[in-house]
Design brief:
about 500 residues, alpha/beta, Amidase signature (AS) enzymes, eleven-stranded mixed beta sheet, two-stranded antiparallel sheet, 16 helices
């Protein structure tokens, strides 16, 4: 069923509706693809083969009876392993939750299934979504299908690698500081983070509650619009959910934004950016300009990236982000103590305090421990004002910079990553080097804005280069339309990775 594997989600949905391929055939093709290639890539932590096949067969029966099957009728979709489902396990790629079975299903997943999607399984990730390479997984490191010696990015690396390798046409990821857009860029697919609150976080295992957002990983922008329209909307189960009507993103994604004003942030086109990526982004900007867009230089002073004499990078946004996210991680992960939730040590002896300490030491990986300890420190007496409160003030300045920029433009065009995919193991011993992989993405989460990464070129080494488009709050429609414009007017070929199921 090679044809089904080469189809985008939109194409596959239409082919199933037309009777050219059945939902059962499409699902079995994806399951076969996972079986053939996942031993090399480690994209999935759990596959629901029997359940997915039954779902697909029911959709075929409904189609045969002339019933409506929804906007995603029969399309196989994967889900990141930090979204609760009442079936299977939800592990967050951690020993702490290795056997956890949720009593309910996340709203975003419920909406997918209500729209006719077939849930294939749970994808690998950095433990509790804390990482930029999917190497911090208690299961196994996921590998980039373009070059299996390199990382797929993170923390939604399993979702991005699964879509890139044609194991599935679409997946859901979560984005706290770039965890959808960064792996999408490194794997040559589209990753979209909606405005904070546009998609319900109910059922998403919390990392940074003021930053987390669910979004799609897909092969093209049309599919990102399609899935976004399905999962977006107000949810009374989530107090941060935005109660505003959701446009039909897929209906007008093909309509160009005219006139289109594209902002180019001065602070992000510096020596910190890889030369090949900078050149590719400037070519993309010129492509837009040739088709009538106006390029505008804008400033994001509090997201400025500085390069020291020794080449080390620094940024207010990165410092601010890691103070906020680690503080929130410390708070959110306090519940995993072997009593309320999670792994409980089987080491006998000692008192309750020793049991709690041992359970957390055994259940959490090194990166999670690092962030919890740093977050606890920044929230402690005597340091709260110096670190956490100050970070909140800087966060407000970062958001204000974006607001002022959008007074002059419709979208911002900027990098998604500072370099192409790096080699496995090359940054695991240097946490700061790993944190700086999100240097172009985490300021959006601080400001709560929508951002999309799409592939625009291949590097000289044959690895994908991604471009990030950023919009104002609730500007998903503009971002998607502007991104689809580039897909339509550019001459970039639809390249395939070296490890692919089709």
């Amino acid at each position: 069923m090679t044809d089904a594997l080469d189809m985008t989600a939109t194409q596959l949905r239409d082919a199933i509706a037309a009777g050219d391929v059945s939902a059962g055939e499409a699902t079995r093709a994806c399951l076969d693809a996972i079986e053939r290639t996942d031993g090399q890539l480690a994209c999935f932590n759990e596959v629901y083969a029997d359940r997915a096949t039954q779902q697909a067969d029911r959709i075929d029966q409904r189609l045969a009876a002339g019933e409506s099957v929804g906007a995603l009728g029969g399309v196989p979709v994967a889900v990141k392993d930090n979204m609760c489902t009442a079936y299977g396990r939800t592990t967050c790629a951690s020993r702490m939750l290795a056997e956890f079975r949720a009593p309910y299903t996340a709203t975003a997943v419920t909406k997918l299934e209500a729209a006719g999607a077939v849930i294939l399984g749970k994808t690998n990730m950095d433990e509790f979504a804390m990482g930029s390479s999917t190497e911090h997984s208690a299961v196994a490191p996921t590998r980039n299908p373009w070059d299996t010696s390199r990382v797929p990015g993170g923390s939604s690396g399993g979702s991005a690698a699964a879509v890139a390798s044609r194991q599935c046409p679409a997946a859901l990821g979560s984005d706290t500081g770039g965890s959808i857009r960064q792996p999408a860029a490194l794997c040559g697919v589209v990753g979209f983070k909606p405005t904070y609150g546009r998609v319900s976080r109910y059922g998403l295992v919390a990392f940074g509650s003021s930053l987390d957002q669910i979004g799609p990983v897909t092969r093209d922008v049309r599919d990102a619009a399609l899935l976004s329209a399905v999962i977006a909307g107000h949810d009374p189960h989530d107090s941060t959910s935005i109660d505003r009507p959701v446009p039909d993103y897929a209906a007008d994604v093909h309509t160009p934004v005219e006139p289109l004003r594209i902002g180019m942030p001065r602070e992000w086109f510096t020596d910190a950016l890889d030369g090949e990526i900078a050149a590719a982004l400037r070519r993309a900007a010129k492509t837009y300009e040739r088709h009538g867009a106006e390029l505008v230089h804008v400033s994001l002073p509090h997201s400025r990236i500085d390069v020291a004499d020794d080449g080390a990078l620094s940024s207010y946004a990165v410092s601010c982000y890691y103070i906020v996210c680690m503080a929130e991680a410390s708070s959110n992960l306090a519940r995993y103590d072997g009593v309320q939730y999670g792994h409980r040590t089987d080491q006998a002896g000692g008192d309750i305090v020793e049991m709690l300490c041992r359970s957390r030491a055994e259940g959490f990986g090194e990166e999670v421990k690092r962030r919890v300890m740093l977050g606890t420190y920044t929230l402690s007496a005597g340091y709260y004002d110096a670190y956490y409160n100050k970070a909140l003030k800087v966060r407000r300045l970062i958001a204000r910079d974006f607001q002022q920029a959008f007074e002059r433009c419709d979208v911002l065009l900027c990098p998604a990553t500072p370099s192409v995919a790096f080699e496995l193991g090359s940054k695991t011993d240097d946490p700061m080097a790993m944190y700086l992989q999100d240097i172009y993405t985490n300021s959006l989460n601080l400001a709560g804005l929508p951002g999309l990464s799409l592939p625009i070129a291949l590097s000289d080494s044959g690895l994908p280069i991604g471009m990030q488009l950023i919009g104002p709050a609730l500007g998903e429609q503009t971002v998607l339309r502007a991104a689809r414009m580039y897909e339509t007017i550019s001459d970039a070929a639809d390249h395939k990775p070296s490890v692919t199921a089709s």
